[in-house]
Amino acid sequence: MSGPVTKRRPARHRNAIVNAIVASAQPIAEPLVAILLALLVGAVGITMLSGLLAGHSSFDVGLPVAAYLALLGGVASPNGFTSTLVYATPLILAGLGVGLGFKAGLFNIGGRGQFLFGTVGAMAVATTVGTTQSSYITVPLALLAGAAFGAVAGFIPGFLKATSGAHEVVTTIMLNYVFVFVTYWAISGPLVLPNAHQPITADVTTRNAALPIILGRDGNAGILLALAAVPIIWFLLYRTTLGFEIRSAGANPDAARYGGMKTSRLIVLTMSIAGLMCGLAGATTLMGVVHQIAPGYDTTVGFDAITVALLGRSNPIGILFSGLLLGAMRAGSQSMQVQAGVPAELVDALQAIILVFLVVNALRRWLDRRAAKRGSTPLIDADAAQAAEGVA
Amino acid sequence: MTEDAPSGSAPTLEMRGITKRYPGVVANDRIDLDVRRGEIHALLGENGAGKTTLMNVLYGLARPDEGKILLDGQQIQIAGPSDAIARGISMVHQHFMLVPVLSVAENVILGAETMSNAVFVDRREASKRIAALAARFGFDLDPDAKVGSLSVGQQQRVEILKALYRDARILVLDEPTAVLTPGETEEIFALLRRLAADGRSIVFISHKLYEVLEVADRITVIRRGRVIGERRPAETTEEELAELMVGREVELTVDRGESHAGEPVLRVEGLRVADDRHHEVVPGASFEIRAGEILGVAGVAGNGQDELVQALIGLRRCLGGKITLMGRDVTGLSPRRMNEAGVGYVPGDRHRFGLILSFPVYDNLVLTSYYRPPFAHGLLRNDSAILDFAAAQIERFDIRTPSAQVKTSTLSGGNQQKVVVAREFDRELKVLILDQPTRGLDVGSIEFIHRQIIAKRDAGTAVLLVSAELDEVLEMSDRIVVMYRGRMVAERDGRTADKSEVGLLMATGGQGGAATPKEAWA
Fold first, then answer.
1. Which run of H or of E encompasses B268?
2. Which of A349, B192, B340, B366 has a CB 3.0–4.6 Å from the CB of B370, allowing a cystine?
């Protein structure tokens, strides 16, 4: 402590002012910074790799600009717009589910399993009801089944946590494998296409279970479902007593318990709703995009939804925008590959970098909170903050 | 009180015209403060008055917008804590900066190690210096004990030892007694007097009046960022200091008046409760409270009070025994059922149980009633009803907040507690359970909350007051029980109880004394 005298400005003083500015722009600032930093890191990566790509000199600093422009161009076209929405649909639905979990203090990593089980549920309706009923009956029923199957897949880890305290991070990861194999079993057994030579299901278009196309060439009606889910989840969170309970349990479980809320019931309910949303994402993807479950069918939506929820700060409106952003990146990645020669997988890298920045920040906040709980000195001068905000 | 404080000597430290502005508020407004050699100088003010900001300026944690600091008549710039320490200014924070897994000696030398060579710390030299310091000032500390195993009072002494090891001439203590028991407080005062007698200067930050009167040579009172006055303990009274501090006349002891105790409302028989580690810390508590009386529970913190109270309101399972409310068995009911049965609760740890700090004030005002009309109809929240209610409560309970929409964490401690009080007090209550209702609050807020408690009692509520502040229990209670190791070991009349006797009962549980039938309870 008796080191050399530094000329640094007092850190606390600076922090107080910076904190005040940041606080006013906080909700959007943090995700925006994460995105910008990811783009910057991505640009550095592209430049470094440019020598490996055909037709470029090594360290071509113009390449990142060309790549990002191509990405934007891909999104800006009419087709790009439609496919942005198509890509965004499951991301928004599952992102709302994961975000709801975050609000309750639950980390649902089981989106993958819930998505897949929802797919199985929708397919089950298509193969049974769809052979005899029209699409007016099959489509809603298949969506409901997808939601219900997803809810069951979310209920299980919720129930385990509420009754035995098993942590949802562990159980959902384990259940992901269970549901991957349940899906393989389903398409090789009960849902297999008769007379097929491999474990594959029927095409939903032949079973009256395809979502109608409402936009462009492949813009399926799942888009509407995702757009409708945003205000519904928002309403649930901020205008109902259940939402208040979910948010309370997440923000301070002890106070929630004192407030008379049954926290174990809330855990089960929240995980079920989260699973429902992920199952719905699986159902719309099956019925609107992939149309059949082929061998090896899997998804990254469950994990991408974590990025979406973090980027949207668990707020339904934020999740709408972050889902659209990640959808746009997927939609533009093809034209980036074609026009700039930069591999489409760069988008995965960008998404991963965004996640890293967000998680670092979330971790910092969590550590701050823990420190505050344990009674260490807060980062802001409490006396001044109190005077500034309390007495005013 | 050292009567012969060197009043004539030139000040060691002078702060002149210190002004520190934060956005929207002037935390320090042209503050003058001087501290003399060998003096204990108390800085008295309410929470948020600017005491901590001033000390942060002195410690180099905040840079003043105006004003200057003189040390031994020389103007200095303090660049940061390490600079302050190098100049002999040390600070003991409210929350200790110690490493629990290291020993006392290791904590003391941390950051100021004497090296025997380029690689190794000279532990022997360090131990010798620490032992010499400890002997000189009468520290009762084992240099090899792990800090994590020490009591709070001992940890505080480690902090002071740290400062002395760095040759602190000016020692700033930020509310040092907030975490101490009365006995530990006496010890720390004795230590501070020895340090002052050794020629060191001590700045003692506090909002407790009797403390500054007891220990300080001079008292500077700060209110809303300004120096309001300077007093010597011999020339002033608690009443005058309180008035200076708050800016109006304050009743330090709310007149509890006569109690008109009625029928027993809450009866607890042989209640057994375990703590989080499954130790049965309440092995059998029995008592009853009648309508319109305040039953005070005196006890050193950690004698099962928290667990008892949590069991009473349904937050903790009862292992045995019976709780009867108005003749009805309510043992084991959930917090919500207890709430609906007319039991109000002000938790000891308001940040843990009482409030959701990240939520706006209006949400916290309905934390226990959000599901009932008019605040909700079925699943739907009625936000306008909640906001109307919040506005009314903010007005009624004088909660100082810019609006009902701000985050509760931005309120001062006193106003946060008013939010809890506004929520719990504003309905017909059969029983009101108060766990340390005024902990950490300043005199103005304490007066307000005490008045509300008396008003509740006079309206016929049975009040259970648990507090580690013996003075609070003595001033407020109509009847006092002493809790020791989870049992009620004695009962006294609240108006005639003798402070030293109750204090002794708290510390020893009354062993050795002849047990009257009442004391053989439980």
1. strand B264-273
2. B366
